[in-house]
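Late entry, written up from scratch paper. The run itself happened at the end of the previous shift, but nothing got recorded in the book at the time, so transcribing now.
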Amino acid sequence: MLIWNLENFCRSTDFEVHRNWLAITHSLPISKWYYEDRSEWTLDYPPFFAWFEWILSQFAPLADKEMLRVDNLNYTSDATIYFQRATVIISELVLFYALKKYLTTNNMKNKNLLNILAASIFLNPGILIGNDLMCGIMFAVLLNFKHIFLYLAPAYFVYLLRHYCFQETSIQGTKTFSLKHFFFLGVSVIIIFLLSFGPFIIMGQLGQVLSRLFPFKRGLCHAYWAPNFWALYSAMDRLLIVFAKRLGWTLNESAIGSITRGLVGDVNFALLPQVKANHTFILTLIFQMASLVKLWKHPSYKNFLVSLILNGYSSFLFGWHVHEKAILLVMIPFSLISADNIALFRSYMILAVSGLYSLFPLLFKLTVHQIIYKDGKYPFLPLLSTSIYCAFGVIYSWIRLSVIYFLGKDDENQEVNF
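Output as recorded:
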């Protein structure tokens, strides 16, 4: 009800994005969905989400058919606002199922703990818990709704391969590879992807779809820096510029305002080495592999969850063009184990405070900077400060969880001493 009644208070930055996608999927043939570019908010989600928008668009004329005109950019009306909010609320009913599924598959005697987790999952939708094959199928479906979950794919792949495709033999403690399970899992995932991308493969548009899903030309950092390693790296480059000018060092003049102009595009550094997409991929893979090795050796559910979280951390901290909202991919699964012991709880709270605060600029704009700099000087300073401040907290929580995971410091009363 709170979301429903906040008509004049604020709207999500994605409001026009989804209005435009409703218009594209409703008014244009499927062959033009991933080519339409009259709006800057082009369709850049996987096909399952595009079809989800198409389904929603079938009901949109009941509210206001004008929202479905592709050329009606930045269109708003009371009916459009209420329609979009209604679709969000209705689609989130799946959270109730996820909540019920999680609570009924965890035999918890501590009712207070159960209530805490229930509230946590309701506010932050959790992950599906079920049999391994269904887990793989549902994750494949999820990837075809939102490809950002590729961040977590390595943990799912290793866990399902080791836990589902290797079965215990009659000899205690040994496992053998199950070709049948591997076949069922592989075929199921392939079918999901063919259902999603098949029409575009037939039309010869797979390359165009992938170029929308993975726009590497957008640059290392988002317009608002995500609070990750590259935010600190970029800030260090800005700081070195100050000293370089005083010491007479040679600068890359074209990079002076490259990363602080608040625009999406290629990022150049004035003094520090340039960072390419393949560099971020290698760094991400290296840090992900560390947790995956332990998961392979000990494919328990607890290790799967922690490895999933660390995979999310690695992708968020070292990935290419990371969105600030991607921190939710770490916070949500972390919330499921945060109440297990004091060490995990404290690590999670550091992440929660840093991660949530980093999202504040998406919700409202502070005017303190405008009061101090009335001439509009340093317009990027508020966002830069928020990114740097929150990056320290996110990185610190990542280090703490890594210590807990690799050194086994997860006993009930054992704490991480730093």
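The CA atoms of residues 282 and 318 lie 9 Å apart.
(Scratch paper discarded after transcription.)
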